[in-house]
Design a protein that fits this description.
The chain is of the alpha/beta class. It has one domain: Rossmann fold. It has nine helices and ten strands.
Length: 283
């Protein structure tokens, strides 16, 4: 479990989807005056160099964020790209932020951030990147346990991002168990769960099963968005990714349908690239 380093995958197509959704959700949460908690169960390093040995080994950002760099993006991506531009004031794309950094840019002094990360090297980088930030607290702890201890939050408002590495089969079950507990403790929270689409039958079945079980927990509303850059038999490894968002912003479905065709156009590797947006309201 501690062998996973997100630096190998920073800025890939899955990051673009995940972080764009995080930005849209954080912006929605910040529109109301009442403060909220942002909880990230698997925070990793917070910021990644696209020039270090991890990123260069895979070069996954080339078919991801680099396809949007220096492009005139649609308005729905303006604020997502704005965060990246702030980190990269020059002409070259050198740094790519993670979920905590993206979300932090849209929070107020009254909001609170709780970040969890177990990998010792990534936790040290996380601490370095957020040193001195008064609203951010970080713990070198299992994020699933940390989440349980924080719910319900004192503010009665929370945005939670759950994106484990999924290197072990048990992590798929842990996500479902964590969400079952979270919805009992705090059913009105906004929960964003990322998952991979991998062209191995066992892994793909685990993602499909997990997504189905999450939707069957029947929160007030749930949105399942997926983006794939190739067909499931064309690309080795991860050919796409998805997010299950429980109690999503009311306008998120519209924003996703507006922006996803552009991501398919820019990041799609084959003619079988595509997306889906599935919204369910439970009465």
């Amino acid at each position: 479990m501690l062998s996973y380093r997100h630096g190998f995958h920073a800025g890939n197509h899955a990051d673009v989807l995940k972080h764009w959704v995080c930005v849209l959700t954080a912006q929605y949460m910040a529109k109301k005056d009442k403060p909220f908690f942002y909880i990230d169960t698997h925070s990793a390093a917070g910021i990644y160099s696209l020039n270090d040995q991890l990123a260069k080994k895979t070069n996954e950002s080339k078919a991801g964020i680099q396809t949007l760099w220096d492009e005139k993006v649609p308005a729905v991506f303006k604020d997502y790209m704005g965060v990246i531009n702030q980190l990269n004031p020059g002409e070259r794309l050198k740094l790519y932020p993670g979920s905590p950094w993206f979300v932090r840019q849209f929070l107020r002094p009254s909001d609170k951030v709780r970040l969890f990360e177990l990998h010792p090297q990534d936790f040290q980088l996380l601490r370095k990147n957020f040193t001195g930030d008064k609203i951010v607290a970080m713990e070198k702890q299992d994020g699933f346990a940390g989440l349980k201890a924080l719910l319900p939050p004192p503010t009665k408002r929370a945005m939670v991002v759950i994106d484990p590495p999924y290197e072990q089969a048990k992590e798929y079950q842990q996500v479902v168990a964590a969400m079952e507990s979270a919805l009992k403790r705090f059913p009105q929270g906004v929960y964003a769960i990322w998952y991979p689409l991998i062209n191995r039958n066992d892994k793909q079945k685990m993602s499909e099963t997990m997504a189905r079980k999450l939707k069957n927990l029947k929160p007030k509303s749930v949105l399942d968005v997926r983006l794939w850059v190739s067909g499931d038999k064309e690309e080795q490894g991860m050919y796409g990714s998805g997010m299950v968002i429980m109690n999503p912003p009311w306008n998120l479905e519209q924003q996703l349908n507006e922006g996803l065709p552009y991501l398919v156009e820019k990041m799609g590797l084959t003619e079988n690239a595509g997306f889906s947006v599935d919204y369910i309201e439970n009465n």
